Amino acid sequence: MSRSFYPPQRTLMGPGPSDVSPRVLGALARPTIGHLDPLFVQLMDEVKELLQYAFQTENELTLPVSAPGSAGMEACFVNLVSPGDTVIVCQNGVFGGRMKENVERCGATAIMVEDAWGAPVSLERVAAAFDEHPQAAILAFVHAETSTGVRSDAAALCALARERGALSIVDTVTSLGGIELNVDAWGADAVYSGTQKCLSCIPGLSPVTFGPRAVERIRNRRHKVQSWFLDMQLVMGYWSGGGKRAYHHTAPVNDIYALHEALLMLREEGLEAAHARHRLNHEALVAGLEAMNLDMAVAAAHRLPQLNSVLIPEGVDDAAVRALLLREFNLEIGAGLGALAGKTWRIGLMGFASSERNVLYCLAALEAALARQGVAFDVGGAIPAATAVFAA
Ligand SMILES: *Cc1c(COP(=O)(O)O)cnc(C)c1O
After folding, report:
1. Which residue lies with its CA nearest to atom 3 of ligand 1?
2. If you measure from the C-alpha of residue 193 to the centroid of ligand 1, how many angstroms do you get, rounded to a whole number?
3. Which CATH number fits domain 22-267: 3.30.420.40, 3.40.640.10, 3.40.190.10, 3.40.50.410?
4. Which of the ends of the chain has fewer CB neighbours closer than 10 A, N or C?
């Protein structure tokens, strides 16, 4: 016999999805209307404008791909990369590796620029790769590497690509809404993001934006885009303004309500205020973790406020701590990935989940879990340390 599914109320402080606000969940439950209904078409236009605000761009071709962040990644690669192209791909964590996969599946050559997991992308190494491969048409990199908690210098990398006559593809899945992201000021050419990280919307949509140089490259393609669903020339006909929409696929109508609500919340708060909130909660969390004698995995200058990588102390059972947090506290934090598996925890403070309440809750729960593991530290010291940051 089948039964309805009622998930528990968790606190989501991992690498995503993050807690979705009741306002967004409320929007999701509103009546479904037709995807060509004039009211829905109007809503699509509003979503586009709100995304332009979130991305800080005037790019006409700005829309949510109807699939998760990974599809936004794929949309950028399949539209810009053609067989025989050379693409410089930066890897300093999990997601650069996926970019390489995308490039190769497009029949192009990926020139890898590798940096340590936990370090930002090195501009010098990218410049050297361009010296060696001047024919490279595209530079691809991750702005906020969720697998390690590192921020790379997107403005400088986009500028370098421009200088070398290449286009940039930028992964901003974890940046959007959490840290400064300025597509037009950076001169970024193709940018994709996700809804389930700092936008605190449900998983399953991928906002993308393409600048004029990227659009020109798409229009001048000689090979058909290998993916019918993600071919921007076709998707453009569905999302472009003017009321003459060509049916391409059925937009996930209620998901778009949710995204609209999440983007409204971001605009009401304002980008700068949202970034300041992420920064403050991060500083308080770090103060609390340091009071527990825990070390951060990333140097202070390169840390993402929305994704905090913490080194797991010697002798502590990684999986047992995370299981206890989930079971006793309904609290999800993330495990380390790849080179950092078993070595770090990833504590997300993303979007709606980036709050004083969650910082204090997570610190108290982690203290309880570590005390149970027999770690020697000043139990009860984390809360005053974090509180001092909030009170300052
Ligand atoms: C989460 C994430 C993705 C993938 O997004 P999905 O919604 O899981 O498909 C891509 N890049 C980065 C940096 C991410 O953090």
Report:
1. 69
2. 8
3. 3.40.640.10
4. N
Pocket of ligand 1 (CB under 6 A): 16, 68-70, 73, 95, 142, 146, 171, 173-174, 194, 196, 203
Enumerate the CATH 3.40.640.10 domain ranges in the chain, comma separated.
Answer: 22-267
Distance 283 CA to ligand 1 centre (A): 24
Angle between helices 382-391 and 356-372 in degrees, nearest 10: 160
Pick the CATH number of 271-391 from 3.40.50.620, 3.90.1150.10, 1.25.10.10, 1.20.120.790: 3.90.1150.10
- Taking the centre of ligand 1 as the mean of its atom positions, its distance from the CA of residue 330, in whole angstroms, is 23
Beta bridge partners of 367: none
Name the packing angle between helices 94-105 and 69-80 (round to 10°).
40
Q: Quickly list DSSP for 40-77.
A: HHHHHHHHHHHHHHHHT---SEEEEESS-HHHHHHHHH
Nearest CA to ligand 1 atom 2: 173
Give the distance, in angstroms, between the CA of residue 7 and the centroid of all CA atoms in the same chain: 24
Ligand 1 geometric centre to CA of 69 (Å): 5
Please tell me the distance between residue 181's alpha carbon and the centre of ligand 1 in angstroms. Answer: 16
State the amino acid at position 253 in one-letter form.
V
Angle at 36 between CA 31 and CA 37, to 5 degrees: 50
